[in-house]
Amino acid sequence: MLTSPRQCRCCGATFAQLLSLSCDRPDICAEDMEVEDNSAVLATRGDILTEDFCRLGDLRFVRAVLAIPLNGTRGEEFILGTWASLSRDDFDAYLDLFEMRETDKLDDRPAWLANAIPPDMPMPAGCMLEMRPGGQYPELKVSEQNHPLYPLQKDGAALEELLELLYAYGHDLPSLVYDA
């Protein structure tokens, strides 16, 4: 499961390595909002959704990752592709350095997880957004100790916990464990 390609029977997605989930937009963003090229965030006023940025009214979002270490592996992580809500000033500072792939020049920033993970989680989690080098997406570190992701991120997840999370998103467990 960690190294060979797998195809999910429920959605048909092929995973070349360890599975990951990715949210295509912040939860608050309308499903019918068209995804535009990243350059549109600079050229367009008002609400916009791009591959890496979202602006809705006074709210600002950037694409991020949330890594969950897997117990019993050699440093393998399950990656959640998420969105982080930032202040307008932090969003603008990030945007200024994004094209130059120098966002790591920013200090860590407070942020909110903008996707319900797990899917039945009613409240967003307070996080720190840690900048990473080389144009990599920043990493969200959950700081709210009462959020279900906090212990998973801090202590790591067992395979069973990971499979439960995937099941909550509708993925067919046998297709993840057995050859398709």
UniProtKB/TrEMBL annotation:
InterPro entries: DUF2199 (IPR018697). Pfam families: DUF2199. It comes from Leisingera daeponensis. This is DUF2199 domain-containing protein.
